[in-house]
Write a structure and sequence with these properties.
The chain is built from 16 helices and 31 strands. The chain is of the alpha/beta class. The chain has three domains: 7-131, Rossmann fold (3-Layer(aba) Sandwich); 141-317, no CATH class; 333-504 and 539-580, Nucleotidyltransferase, domain 5. The longest helix has 18 residues, at 33-50.
Amino acid sequence: MGTQMGKTAGLFNVIGHKLDDDPAPILYFGPTKSNIDKVIEPQVMGMLRESRSLWAKLDKRGKPNKHLKRVSGVSLRLAWAGSPTELASQPAHTALADEVDKMKPIPGEGDALALAEARIATYPDGRLVGTSSPTAGNVDVAKHADTDVEHWQVADADDVASPIWRFWQEGTRYEWAVPCPECARFFVPRFRLLWWPEGATPRRAERDARLTCARCGAQIGNEHKEWMNSRGTYLAPGQHVVGFDRAGKGPPRHAWLGVDGGNGDVIGDPPDSDTVTFWVSGLMSPWVTFGQRAAAWLKAVLSGDQERIRVVINTAFGELYRTRGQAPEWTVVRESCSAPYQLGDVPSGVMVVFLSVDVQKDRLVCVVRGWGVGMESWLLHREELWGETDKPEVWNRLWVLSERRFGDMAVSAFAVDSGYRTEQALEWCRRRGARAYATYGREKPSRLYFESNIEVNRNGKKIRTGMKRWIVDTAYFKGWVHDRFGWPDDQPGAWHIPGALPSGEWPGGTEEYCKQLVGEQRMHLPSGRVQWVRTGENHYLDCEALQAFLAHVEGVRNLKPTDAAKPATPGRRVISSGVSIY
């Protein structure tokens, strides 16, 4: 689930109940020592003081120990991830891991959850409990064929970076479901069902946002949330609720524990697993309204800060932030990324225009892409300039292309791969000026990109003010492009290519362009390392990776809607020197 929804309080209830009614050693561990010392330990002591029974059972002899309490003759140890000695000090009956996704692996020891699980191995009825807000991964939603209830699908482990989500999908996969006040059928609330008026400001969205019923489409106001939660229940894939009516009769509060069916009961069995797992949408938090969730999302989008957007997805909604996906077939790329505009049009969202160039022996492969708020982008032009690239003619034609205007905008930055025909690429960038980046791709450099001085004086020392070449992490930026295939409409950062012509045909070259975008694939080696393997022509992928580099180095993520003094006109056909740029 998201943050501030009772995860830690729930773990404290487990601790208090276990120590008071069924004493056994307990291990609680959080992400950092600072969190344990400044937040958790004071709260634990507050809980012990507030309970007469626990306070009477607390061993108060000797010097107080922040990280070890003795209650009812057993130990309560407070530990943190990152320290193998803290997690390996003694066995425990119950191990409680709080905010799993914030925990870093322990050097030489591995995953903190695995270490915690080893602590309970000596107890036949030992228990490991993990909670967290999720982080990153690619998951989809699908309706169950028998129940018509939408559930999260199980994703490949390579597609999910979030440890708690991987943990969750290994288990029973219960999701918090609530009844619709209109149709009385149960559905699982999630971000994609949150509605607000099109074009609304955050303030208006806070007033007018509604939750859409996934079963009947009714728009539900926040005033119904308490009624819905009071009748809610957990549903695993394959389960459904029977016997519910609008008068208020619903399933038992803990129907998911196992009932045989009947009026208001949960019918069906969860997936067979020795791990019981639950997910709750942040939309159903009793302390935050639908409108407040919508406003937080819109403010993050308007900021253009992807990190802020990720935090809202993770903490406010309890969902994964989409990061990447395996490259599909080229036809899937074409269909999923096709937008309702054509080459030669400049969509209204375009605020800056970049040109990227991949250099081959007999041609320059070029891509012009427009960029806007939230790292959203549109392919405006693609072209192969044929000619021997060790001669000036083809570079002169590139200069002509670089001078074209797209809508009312000139190209504002250029990236040219200088790994081949290095001298020619460097000279062209030198002539173009400061906004021309001569790049050189490397796998896993020390940073995503950095500039390197390449000109030297007569003594062989580099000239600080001389020509520079930019070292670029090509694997990262190719992955960034592949992440955008099929990017969901409800997240900023969409990556567009033009759709079919009015005749229904695709513009010439679209097939080759899309095939080259998947001409390299990410391969996950047994060692865990990711390697890019070429499976076909990939020149347009290289160009699009350079576009992503330009967007990063030129600060596109910082663009605001107010930065656009003269937005381009939708549907405008661009003509330069009498030549259409189709």
